[in-house]
Amino acid sequence: MPLIKNGEAVEDHFVTIEDDAPLFGGGLGLDSLDALQAAGTVDVIITDYAMPGMTGIQFAERVKAQWPSLPVILASGYAELPEDSGADIIRLPKPYGRADLIRAINLATQLQAAQESTAPH
User: Is CATH 3.40.190.10 correct for 13-116?
Assistant: First the structure.
C-alpha cells in the first residue's frame, strides 16, 4: 500500500520510528517540542500516548496550538483513551502493521489537505 499525498503515490518519503529510545533530546515532550521548532518542515507527527513528562494527548495539544494544520497521530495500546483526547487527533491502535501505519498517515494528510483548502486565505 503506497503512501498517498495529493492523490498520488509518494515514494520519496520516509518514516522514522523510535520505540524504546527517545527520538529527540531526553525523550520528554517539551524536548520534542523544542526539537520540532528547530526542525523546519515536518509533514506529520506520530506520538505514543504514554511518554515521560506529559501524555501524548498533552503533547498533541501543544503541537496543535503552535502548528494547527500539522497532523498528529496518537499510537496507543490502551483500549480507551480519555474523552478529551482531541477530535482532530488520529488514533493508531497498537499493535499495528505497515498497512495500518500507512492508512493512518494517509488519513492524516488527507484531513490536513481538507483543512488547508477550507481555511481562509
Answer: no
Mean pLDDT of 70-84: 78
For the chain, give every domain's residue range: 13-116
Sign of CA dihedral 57, 34, 108, 96: negative
The residue type of 116 is: E
Query: What's the predicted TM-score (pTM) here?
Result: 0.72
78: its cell numbers: 490502551
Enumerate the H helices of the chain as residue ranges: 29-39, 56-66, 98-118
Q: Where does the pLDDT of residue 26 fall: very low under 50, low under 70, confident under 90, or very high at 90 and above?
A: very low
Task: Please check whether residue 31 is in contact with residue 22, taking contact to mean a CB–CB distance below 8 angstroms.
Answer: yes
CB 72 within 8 A of CB 47: yes
What does the alpha-carbon distance between residue 1 and residue 121 come to, in Å, rounded to a whole number? 34
